[in-house]
Amino acid sequence: MTGQSYGGFTPTGTIATAADRRRVVFATVVGTTVEWYDFFIYATAVGLVFGQLFFEPLGANSGLIAFATVGVSFLFRPLGAFLAGHFGDKLGRKTVLMWTLILMGAATALIGVLPTYQTIGITAPVLLVLLRILQGISAGGEWGGAVLMAVEHAPKTRRGVFGASPQIGVPLGLLLASGVMALMTIVAPGDQFMAWGWRVPFLLSVVLILVGYYVRRKVEESPVFQELAERKEKARMPIVQLFAKHSLLVIIAALVFAGNNAVGYMTTGGYIQGYATNPEGPIGLQPGPVLWAVAGSAVTWLISTLFAGWISDRIGRRTTYIIGWILQLIGVFALFPLVNTGQIGALFAGLAILTVGLGFTYGPQAALYSELFPASIRFSGVSISYAIGAIAGGAFAPTIATAIVQATGSTQAVTWYLAGMTLVGLVATLLLRDRSGIPLGPDHEAEQSVSPIYGVAKA
Predict the structure, then answer these.
(1) Closest by Cα among 20, 45, 129, 139 to 391
(2) Half-sphere exposure (CA, 13 Å, Cβ side) for 351?
(3) What pTM does this model have?
(4) 457 — pLDDT class (breaks 50, 70, 90)
(5) Per-residue pLDDT, 399
(6) HEC sequence for the chain
(7) Which end of the chain, N or C, is surrounded by fewer C-beta atoms within 10 Å?
(8) How wide is the angle at C-alpha 422 spanned by C-alphas 416 and 427, nearest 5°?
(9) 105-119 pLDDT per residue, tens
(10) Which tens digit of pLDDT belongs to each residue from 348-397?
């Protein structure tokens, strides 16, 4: 077996065959799907049951408080990103990915056995928030490792489509979370769902984590990290170096993701599910059909994400993103007029249109981020940029949307808020040069360290 060369040096154990690369892709898809299933099942439950079971005794704003707990986890994503970035650049991508998977699974399963407010009082929401924080720490560390395992194993001309493999873990996780919840509304309808049916999807996490752990154990370490390790060129303090030399790049990269994440969290954050099923709201649809509509939109999101990764290998990351922002803006303005018809078919159509733009502004992200940062601090760079973007974008998007509707009695202002976040992502994208195909190995650290920001000196 011959290894693939990364800048004239061939590290031992480098993936060389198509079968090995497929194994990497499969492992990243399975692992991120399990992670995001765990993360999204919480947001889905917030919109359906947590407000009543854990927060309703806290007052009239219990729904707003419940959605705020979705955002609390994002505040701890940077901690997960800092820890994962530090250890990922020093100990390897694979080691970090194993621990993030275990942490997420443990937190999710514990939510499934957590007593409600009626049983243990104020301790219930406190414990729920603490477990959500652990989910946030895990999510903050998961993404960077997964995308680097995929992109750093990829051939230079296929980084976009390889990088899209962990990206589809988001729509797959949403599909799985919504589908399992929808199924439980059938298995345990009405009061049974509120009593115990909602717990089953959380407990199912134990099985999924075992599968994900087994699959990830079979995958080789990233070849770029192997080369860094064999050359003993790992950064001593990667986070310090990142902010000392690339702080502006981190902010701009974060804003690119924020533009996507704020809009995406209308469904992944549980807002649309809660808004459409609220019996006191303007629509009042049944939870089951709404969950199936969200699950269906996850399929269109998955397809557009994969296609965007593939097309970015042909027309570049930047051009793909620009197309995506335009499509996302169209989806934003179509969303609530369709949802507010109160027809389940129109709701699905609104979500499906929106997810096309979301896929185009998410599919190329793994390759884009990987090509922005030097090899020795890449894990820290992609993880922290992603975590900051999640806070600026999706962290409190459902809470903001809920507060806007409560204040105005209309979803029109929510549309303008989402349109504004889309434009933020577009502007941030326009500030970056396209670096598709740049060498990723340590031999090219000097070239990788040149700023990709327009208006900043190239050398």
Answers:
(1) 139
(2) 33
(3) 0.82
(4) low
(5) 85
(6) CCCCCCCCCCCCCCCCCHHHHHHHHHHHHHHHHHHHHHHHHHHHHHHHHHHHHHHHHHCCCHHHHHHHHHHHHHHCHHHHHHHHHHHHHHCCHHHHHHHHHHHHHHHHHHHHCCCCHHHHCCHHHHHHHHHHHHHHHHHHHHHHHHHHHHHHHCCHHHHHHHHHHHHCHHHHHHHHHHHHHHHHHHHCCCHHHHHHHCHHHHHCHHHHHHHHHHHHHCCCCCHHHHHHHHHCCCCCCHHHHHHHHHHHHHHHHHHHHHHHHHHHCCCCCCHHHHHHHCCCCCCCCCHHHHHHHHHHHHHHHHHHHHHHHHHHHHHCHHHHHHHHHHHHHHHHHHHHHHHCCCCHHHHHHHHHHHHHHHHHCCCCHHHHHHCCCCHHHHHHHHHHHHHHHHHHCCCCHHHHHHHHHHHHCCCHHHHHHHHHHHHHHHHHHHCECCCCCCCCCHHHHHHHHCCCECCCCCC
(7) C
(8) 125
(9) 899 999 999 999 989
(10) 999 999 999 999 999 999 999 999 999 888 888 998 998 899 889 987 88
